[in-house]
Write a structure and sequence with these properties.
132 residues; mainly alpha; 4 helices; 88% helix; 0% strand; rod-shaped
Length: 132
């Protein structure tokens, strides 16, 4: 061992040198790093920083309101989509019913025309037989 090692072991040298050699300073840095990453930076707010903090809180509040509004709009859009789908189904059913009614009306008119034609033919035949 040389003289500087003996001096450090016996208590000589600076406290910083001992902490660097023993690693106790490194443990404190790791703890501070863990605290930073787990809990964020440790800031003491002065007057100016408190004002900034209040602005950040205000912006955060506005952002939360905006997110709530977006979620509400999303639910309203979902409801609107459901209504639209229901309306589409109702219009398809209306189309089917109107087509069925239109066919029934056409058959009714055609049937009446056929009956009228048969009656006209019978009247003509009766007139021809009576006039001969």
């Amino acid at each position: 061992m040389d003289d500087s090692d003996e001096e450090l072991i016996s208590g000589g040298g600076t406290k910083e040198e001992r902490e660097n050699l023993l690693g106790s300073n490194k443990d404190k840095e790791e703890e501070e790093d863990e605290d930073f990453f787990l809990h964020g930076p440790k800031i003491k707010f002065s007057g100016q920083l408190a004002g900034i903090r209040s602005q950040v809180d205000e912006v955060t509040g506005v952002m939360k309101e905006n997110v709530a509004k977006v979620i509400e709009r999303g639910s309203q859009l979902t409801e609107l989509g459901a209504r639209s789908e229901s309306l589409s189904e109702m219009s398809a059913e209306f189309r089917r019913q109107s087509t069925r009614v239109q066919r029934q009306a056409w058959w009714k008119v055609t049937r009446n025309q056929i009956i009228l034609g048969i009656v006209a033919v019978i009247i003509i035949i009766v007139l021809i037989i009576l006039l001969h």
